[in-house]
Amino acid sequence: MVSYDIIVIGSGAAGLYCAHQLNKEGYKVVVVEADQRIGGRTRQDVDFTQWPIELGGEMIHGGDTLYYQLAKENNWGIFEVFSMELFSQNSKNTFFYLGRERKLISQDQVDDDMSMLFKALGSMKEDTQGMTQEQIGEMNLLELLVKKGVPYRVLGLADAVYSKTWGTNLDRIGIREAIREDEKPQAILKNYKIQQSSKALVDFLANGLEIKTNWRAKSVDYRDGGGVSVRSYNGKTITAKAAVVTVPLTILKENDINFVPALPQRKLDAINVIGMDAGMKIIAKFNKKFWRQDCQLVLCGDSPVPQIWMDGPPLRPLDKQKPAEFVVTGFITGDQAKSIASLSPAAQIKAFLNQLDSMFGNSQDWTPATNCFISHIVYDWCKNPFVRGAYSFPSIIPSSFKYKESPNQILSEFVDKKIFFAGEATATQYELSTINGALQTGLRAYHEIKENLPLTSIRDSKL
Ligand SMILES: Cc1cc2nc3c(=O)[nH]c(=O)nc-3n(C[C@H](O)[C@H](O)[C@H](O)COP(=O)(O)OP(=O)(O)OC[C@H]3O[C@@H](n4cnc5c(N)ncnc54)[C@H](O)[C@@H]3O)c2cc1C
C-alpha cells in the first residue's frame, strides 16, 4: 500500500491551497474528495450564459488579500464590482430596498432611520462597553439593535445588509464574535470578480496534485504511534504521517467522519457552538437591462430575496454575434433560504420575478423582470450532500462554553501533531466564511506541518 506524508481531506480552497504548498515543498501529498468534482463551495455553470456563472463563492472580498494577489499574479482577469461600504462614495452602485414600503433607495437618499441602523452596525464595540465578555458572548444582534432603539421599519434591512451576508438571521449573530470579525484586517470592503471565474483558482492549485475524487472519508484513525490511517465509505484505506481535515463544519457536526480516538472535548464543544446555516442562489437571465445603469447591488429588507446583484455587459465582454444577456443573482441565506427552498421551482422563480418587478417596475412597464425573463437556475447548497449549508458565521457563545479562546480558534488547533484543521470555519487571523479566509487556513496548516513535521525528520523517522 502506498503511504503518503500527508492526506488532505477535502478539495475546497483550503485543502487545495494546503496541498499545493506542501507539494511544492516536497511532501508526498494526496487529496481525497467525497464529491466527483473538486472545488467544494466554488462551483460554476458554464452553459447558462456566455460567461461562467458562479453557483457558490463568487467575489474576492478585498484587494489586500491572498486571493486577490493570486488572481493578479496569474492574470485571471480581475474586475471591480460593487462595494459593501455603507455611506461611501465607493458604494455608489449599491442600493437599498425597503420591501414593505416598496422603496428603492440610493446611497444619497439614505434616511435618518437607515443612518441610525448603519451607525449601530458600526459601533457594536462601543455599544457593549461595560458589559462582561460573557454577556456580550450571549447577546445577539437583534437584541443589540432593539436595545439601541433602531426603528422596527429598518430591522429587515439590518438582516439583509448584515446577517444575510453572514449567511444567517439577525438573532443568530453573536455580538462578541461579530466584533472579533469586524476587527480582523480584511473586514471587506471592495469586491472583485474574476473573468475566468473561481475555477481559475481551483485549476491553478490542483495542477500537479494527486487527487482522489469520489473518495469520501469515513474514519480517521490516529491511535497508534505510527501515523494516521484514513478509511473511505467504500472500504479503501490510505495511510500517512498526518492528515489535514478541511471538510465543511456541517460534516463535522453531523459526524460523517469518525475520529479514533475521539477528538478532544474542547474541539467537540467548539464544533457544537459554531453555526452554519442554509444558503442558495437563484440566478435569472434577461434579454434587457431593466434596472438603472448604475445599479449593481441591492440589499433588500422585508423581501423574499435579501441580496441581489447584476452582471452582464459592460462588465462582461460578449460575443457581438450573439444576443446580449443580462443576469440578476439572488443570494439567499438563513431561514429565508429554507423558505424559498420549500417552494416549487415555478413558485421560486415567480417570487423572485415579482420582487424584481416591484423594485424596478414603473408606469412605462410595471413588470419589466417578468417581461424580459429568459430562464433561470437555482443552486441550493443544503442539497449538496458534502456541504449541506452556506458557511460558518459569528455565533452566539453560550455561558456553558467555558473556554477563553473563540470556538473557531479551538477548531483550528491541531491534535497530537497528526490531525491538522483548515477550512473557512477555522479562520482566526483572517475573515471567516470566505474563499480568502479558507486559503489563509490552508496556508496556516501548511506552516504548522512544516514546523511540526519537517520533511527531513519525517523522511528519516520510521513512522
Ligand atoms: C452561495 C455561496 C456564495 C458564496 N459567496 C462567496 C463570495 O462571493 N466570496 C467568498 O469569498 N466566499 C463566498 N462563499 C464562501 C466560500 O465559497 C467558502 O467559504 C469557501 O469556498 C470554503 O472553502 P473550504 O475549503 O473551507 O470548504 P469547501 O469548499 O466546502 O471544501 C470542503 C470539501 O470537503 C469535501 N468533503 C466533505 N465531506 C468529505 C468527506 N467525508 N471526505 C472527503 N471530502 C469531503 C466537500 O465535498 C468539499 O469539496 C460563498 C459560499 C456560498 C455557499
Automatic annotation (TrEMBL):
Entries under InterPro entries matching the protein: Amino_oxidase, FAD/NAD-bd_sf, Flavin_monoamine_oxidase
Pfam family, one: Amino_oxidase
GO MF, any single term: oxidoreductase activity
Domain Amine oxidase residue range list: 198-445
Gene3D superfamilies according to UniProt: FAD/NAD(P)-binding domain
Family matches, as SUPFAM superfamilies: FAD-linked reductases, C-terminal domain, FAD/NAD(P)-binding domain
Record-given protein name: Amine oxidase domain-containing protein
Species name: Polysphondylium violaceum
